[in-house]
Amino acid sequence: MEPSFPWLTVLTLLPLAAAAVIPLLPDKEGRTVRGYALGVGFVDLALMVWAFWSHFDATQPTYQLVEQYAWMPQVGLTWSVAADGLSVSLILLSGLVTTLAMLAAWRVNHRPKLFYALMLVLYSAQVGVFAAQDLLLLFLMWELELVPVYLLIAIWGGPKRQYAATKFILYTALGSIFILVGALALAFRADTFTFNMAALAAQDYSLAFELVVYLAFLVAFGMKLAVFPLHTWLPDAHGEASAPVSMILAGVLLKMGGYGLIRLNVELLPQAHLLLAPALGVLGVVNIIYGALTAYSQTNLKRRLAYSSISHMGFVLVGIAALDVLGLDGAILQMLSHGLISAALFFLAGVTYDRTHTLAMNEMGGIGRIMPKVFALFTAGAMASLALPGMSGFASEISIFLGVTSSEVYGPTFRTVMVVLAAVGLVLTPIYLLSMLGQVFFGTGAAPACDLDQEHQHREANQGAICFGTSCVVPSEAEFGDATPREVFVAACFLALIIGIGVYPRLATQVYDATATAVIAQVQDSSVTLARLPQLPAGRPVGLPTGSGLLGIVD
Amino acid sequence: MDSLYQYAWLVPALPLAGAALVGTGLIAFNSWTNRLRQVNAALIMSLLGVALGYSLALFWSQVQGHEAFHWQFTWAVAGSFHLEMGYVIDRLTSLMLVIVTSVALLVMLYSDGYMAHDPSYVRFFTYLSLFSFSMLGLVMSPNLVQIYVFWELVGMCSYLLIGFWYDRVAAREACQKAFVVNRVGDFGLLLGMLGLFWCTGSFEFGVIGERLEDLMAAGSLGTGLATLLVVLVFLGPVAKSAQFPLHVWLPDAMEGPTPISALIHAATMVAAGVFLLARLEPILEHLPGAMTVVAWTGAFTAFLGASIAITQNDIKKGLAYSTISQLGYMVMAMGLGAYGAGLFHLMTHAFFKAMLFLGSGSVIHGMEAVVGHNPALAQDMRYMGGLRKYMPVTATTFLIGTLAICGVPPLAGFWSKDEILGAALGANPVLWSVGWLTAGITAFYMFRMYFMTFEGEFRGLSFGPGAMRVGELSAEEEGHRGPAGHHAAHPHESPWTMVTPLVILAVPSVLIGLLGTPFANYFEAFLEGHGPLRVEPFAAEVDWQEFGVTAGSSVAIATLGILVALLIYRLHRVDPAQLALKLKPLYEFSLNKWYLDDLYERVFAQGCRQLARQALEMDYRIIDGVVNLTGLATLLTGEGLKYIENGRVQTYALVILLAVLSLVLASGLA
Fold first, then answer.
1. ipTM
2. CB distance B254 to B380 below 8 Å
3. Which of A323, A361, B36, B448 is most buried, most CB within 10 Å of its CB?
């Protein structure tokens, strides 16, 4: 079963190696580079699908496709990559989103070589983070991802790009220090000095130590996942980045936070997780409601989508906090689903921006008449985001709700309050998403106050001037045609997966269900060691007994 | 026989295939697809036609007494948890399948005429087909989760269709309102569903009912909690079937094209709530408290809807409030445990209300030739009058529908409404009197509508005194259309595609009630019996005296209502404007819809907006401010105290947030 071919190494390093070649390519207005980068992205995605299809056994919860090479033994760094269900699903997501983001970035007319090279480096870093088996390697990959994102925002972003990029790098760099410190602490505290996650997971630490490291990781991953109150970098970064970069930021990079929480906090520090899970759940609920409320009062299209991401990430936290398989499955599915949905929405926001040259929703209005296809696709994306059944958002959120409901760790009051407050999010989501559709695409009723005067309008070049809401755009400044086939294709790729998973969630869940089950079993095992719990009735497959005295979480 | 049931999934799948095919065409080959207008419509209609045929076959098989059929597959797995989806064909489902497919097909035929000049004709048919799929899926659902799935899907279709004319501001507001109000109901439905799952570990109606009974018998589940959970589930039907207090979306939903009002907002989707209550029967029967809530909600809504319908001048709004009122009757029947009666009224109402709405659409279509494509003018009954002369078929069918809804024997509405009132009389005289009074109001407003629209002289734009101010009118007219010379002087009868469905629907509106007479109730025998259909004609237990009392009293009050309407609006013995002036507070109360819309707007819509602004303000000033150090400096230098002292908005937001946190924490620690 052990594959002889180093699949994961190749998958990780192929885009990086390809990026190194880009400066040597002859540059014809970036067309060659564009095709090249897209080709590399697609080949890597195809290889992923092939490798996991033929060499990954989803029924096993263990790490597979394991590779280990000593890299710098002096500092204990090994090139150690492997994948379990969680990694596989997120690696596939990052491959898909990054490739489609490169297809979305069709008209990069400013330093295209650098742009595509950075995209490819970012590609490698994402796969690396999800595949790393070594804490130090994970940290390196985490850092490797920061640089291209910083440059991509700072060079190709919107008007406030410098501020946004600086804020992003400060936040995330600060966060990654916590990862490093936590990793070192774990490595030194282990019986033998090691960064290997599997070895670290087998260690038992004292509870106090676990709690401290847990909090360090929580800060780091909480920043990445935009957990309240560490979230304010996100609206700036997502709002200012150009659409393809926003797609990756929202589609994949946010999920690194959730991945880290599951991989390190839950798997390595199960005792601390058992104790702190309620706090995580509370943060999740706050994220859901707070994100939704702030989203509603945003007037900028991309910032509204950015705050909606914060709201949706709250569900991930709640799912992780549920401490049962359904909840964890739902949390992972929510990451995948939000990855697809937010990438689609940011892409469509970019498509809209290409035409309107504004992101202020009150300056748009009525553009559905001019761009019916974009309208239709945007509506589909918004429906997915508000968890319409038949689309992936519903499958994940219902799973999280069921997870919290049936979690046996918490008392009924806590569960009830969590479920009710999280469900408030379900009411708030359509309010801000549908009002967004209304403001952008539906008629406003206001007569367009055209700033092109009569004479201006009759000039030859301005014949096709078009009015959105209360402002007019002359054709030389904007393309106002409907979505091109390329744009429809990109959106359709996302929507096909969103609907596919929504109609039959097992398409996605079967990849990681075994892993999630094992993780939860491990957490529950640790409760036995943790437990000064005298009465553990045997034969409970899921969950702790309700009578456990954890944090006094009893009825 | 089995193969008939094994392929029953085709019934919803065919319309879905049609919608997917044409929808994909619209996205990928827009101009091509749009050019093939009637080809697409024909495709979608023939697929639905096959579904209708299949439904009839299933229905016939159920009438023959074949067993109910269940089919399930595992939809989601997580650890040891399994969630099944599938379909069930039992008597109730087969009946609903026939109602939905037949009304949907007739509405599609009608839409070909009604939407003939609309540039989005193809998109309209796509949405219709998508809706048919969702509605058929809903009635075939075997468990609560799947009902929830399709419940939301029909809601989405409703959103898309209300917002169909998306350059109208009113449509934009209406579709958002519809979706959000329905989400509030779904919020309750979801919570109730999760709660029931928590208690019983199942989503199947029968299993939940049994286990609830066991749990309550064992004393491990309080009746109060069980009632609360079921009432939460009931919030779903409250929103979908437009019951008080979540009825406010339905009148606004009339912004959608009229065929939609007929299909979705009168005949099928809004009845889904009643259908769900019927499915909940095994759960409800153990919880008399929940039944009482359901019954009173229904009765109150019946009265509320009727009382508002009296003063509406927009023909569609009037019909919408009438729908709310009739749905109230059905819900009341469900609460009284008279499931058969409620479903019977659902069926009769589906036919005659669809016909009334399509008739109003025909009127609007005719009026548009005179007043232009302005819904404010074309739907206002004050501009109509005397239309019977110009639109004889529409007028006749509308009169039939009016008689049916008023409960004039032997038309359909008489039998079904009478059965509900009979059940109410047996259970609670107060409920009966509310229903009885509402029946009188119904007769009055329906005949007011009929007389204003079809009798007397055609008023056109030069309508008489007592309505809109003249200036207002001319401004509207000028703003919308060019010179009046473009319009015809008289309305015209609608094309055959629109008239045929009216005529076809008139048949069940007259006759279908005979299936459920107290002497030979085929309908209930079918729904509640087992094995081959067997009815004892002229069953011995018919209580002639009771029948005489209920039927007599309801015919009497209906006649009274009709007579009053006749006096005021046909014979003009009483001037309605004078009457309104005399009863000004009541008139205003009804005209302003009990001020509920204003109240909701002020409390919920503005409150939500305010809260959102405050949250953002806090996000920007405090949380982000601390990051940028400006906020920190403010807080440290005591500037921050100002916010607390003078009650600035962000402080409130902070307090709210802390309250949320502490509430959750406190309950976690408790």
1. 0.87
2. no
3. A323
